[in-house]
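Hi U.,

Before I forget, here's the chain from the pilot set. I'm dumping it here mostly so it's searchable later in email.
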Amino acid sequence: MNINFGLTADDYSKYRVQYPDKVFNKLQEFGLGEKGQSLLDIGTGTGFLGRKFAEKGLEVTGIDIANELLNVARKLDKEQGLNITYVSSKAENMPFAKNSFDIVTAAQCWHWFNSVEVLHEIKRVLKKDGRLIILHLDWLPIKDNVVSKTEELILRYNPNWAGDGGNGIYPDWLTQVSEAGYRNIETFTFDLNVNFSHDAWRGRIRASAGVGASLTDEGLKNFDMDLKKLLNNEFPGDLIIPHRVFCLVCERPNV
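Structure:
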């Protein structure tokens, strides 16, 4: 399945769910998110995570391979008066010197990387005792809820999509960072409900890999109309979408 998130730039910036304050409060317990820390956000997209840290006074750099998303990120930063540096780059081969950052973050993107290669690069660019944060916020398909019905519709249009049926928990990440030598691995998770209007849910789904980032223009238009019909017929009124946050925090390897 060919994925191009640049095609979703507009919907991505408007409808992707922001991480709740509880995430940042929890990370502060690890000493992460302090003013003056240097942070690299890989797979930054439209910068929705990096901006949260920049607001707290961190020195933030973001990388992504989709220039369309980076252009939107720059526009949003300007509107909010924030100064974040963006670089077009793959996470597996980053143009930064050794020991450059206190923190590396990866939000909603870890599954797109070659974990062995990217963990080697993260080790290289992190300072001694620097920390890696891998973070995800997932919708939850529960039997016959709007998420499960939406995923069924996505699969009708895109049978190669592999993002259905998730539970928002990622034990493989712990194995990957452990095998790469990362230390003091900790995780936290919690659930929350997110309110969506019909239009906002359609926008959020258009911004996903299985829809806006991979369907043809005609396929996307037809999908969106079918989703609109589904929502009107089976889920009238505003939607309450269950989500789960999963976060892994670990320290750079010693050697």
